[in-house]
Amino acid sequence: MDSPPEVTFASMLFGGIAFMLLAAGGLVLFLVVYQKRLLQQQLRLRAAEATHQQALLAAVVEAQERERERIGRDLHDGIGSTIATAKLLVQRLEGPQPLADRADLLGLVKEIMGTAVQDVRTVSHSLYPVVLARFGLAEALQHLVDVSNEAGTLAVALEVEYPRPLALAQELALYRICQELMHNAFKHAAGATRLSVQLRQRGTLLTLAVGDDGCGFALPAPGALAPAAAAAGAGLRSIDVRVQLLRARLHRASGPGQGTHTRVELPAAFAV
Amino acid sequence: MTSTALFMFAARFMEFALAVTFLSGVVRFRRLPPELRYLAVFMGLDVLTEISSDWLHRHHQPNLFLFPIFAAMEVWFLALVYDRALQWPAFSRWRPGLAGAFVAYCVLDGWLFPEVARFKPALQIVESVLVLSLVGLYFRKLLRELRVTRLDQEPMFWVSTGIVVNSLGSIQIFLFSNYLLTHYSNQLSTAAWAVHTLLNVVLYACYCTALWIRPRK
Question: What interface predicted TM-score (ipTM) does this complex get?
Answer without folding.
Answer: 0.87
